[in-house]
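4.2 Preliminary Data

To establish feasibility before requesting continued support, the project team ran the inverse folding procedure on a target of 215 residues. The structure was first converted into the token representation described in Section 3, and no sequence information of any kind was made available to the design step. The complete token record follows.
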């Protein structure tokens, strides 16, 4: 299991997971991803692959733009057999709380990729954001997710599995980094970009840096 976390301040947290099994024969494994929430209200929108957590006037919008089609979300709270959906209160006593479970039994093929966006907000209104593009590394050799917000701004993220190889020429960018993020404002105006351990990002950098770094 290889996990990458990327926090874009003021925008979102991106969690990228890659799981693989080292054996090629035998019983197919079950694959499971669990997200434990605190006490509050959780709603699942399976048609849009999104989850909404609400606690007072604050909340969290979870987007699931990349996951196996067989992996369906279920909610569990205060269950004992098996033990699912609990947190500890200030007195260290168990309190029921919703747990989001994503599971696929006898999974095949033996490699899989997940991309999860966590978007916190601090107002009564739920953020309006849509996934407009999602590319699975199994099909393209690189992963990509593009988000479009209600103000017309966009976020695009590209990566390679386990951040092991360079993106090279992928989609509309070129870089020797394994992960890249581009944020554009309304109307397509470039606001900021980031690469992980690279020296250039075409078409955004004018020249290559002398040493590879995260910038």
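Position-by-position output of the design step:
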């Amino acid at each position: 299991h290889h996990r990458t976390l990327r926090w874009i301040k003021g925008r979102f947290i991106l969690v990228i997971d890659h799981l693989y099994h080292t054996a090629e024969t035998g019983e197919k494994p079950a694959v499971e991803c669990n997200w434990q929430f605190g006490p509050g209200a959780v709603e699942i929108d399976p048609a849009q692959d999104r989850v909404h957590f609400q606690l007072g006037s604050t909340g969290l919008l979870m987007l699931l733009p990349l996951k196996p089609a067989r992996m369906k979300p279920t909610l569990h709270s205060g269950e004992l057999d098996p033990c699912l959906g609990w947190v500890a209160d200030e007195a260290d006593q168990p309190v029921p709380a919703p747990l989001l479970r994503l599971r696929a039994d006898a999974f095949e093929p033996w490699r899989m990729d997940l991309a999860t966006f966590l978007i916190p907000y601090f107002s009564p209104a739920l953020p309006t954001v849509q996934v407009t593009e999602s590319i699975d590394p199994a099909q393209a050799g690189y992963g990509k997710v593009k988000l479009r917000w209600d103000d017309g701004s966009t976020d695009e993220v590209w990566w390679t599995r386990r951040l092991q190889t360079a993106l090279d020429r992928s989609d509309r960018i070129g870089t020797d980094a394994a992960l890249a993020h581009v944020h554009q404002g309304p109307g397509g105006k470039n606001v900021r970009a980031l690469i992980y351990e690279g020296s250039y990002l075409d078409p955004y950098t004018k020249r290559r840096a002398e040493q590879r770094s995260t910038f």
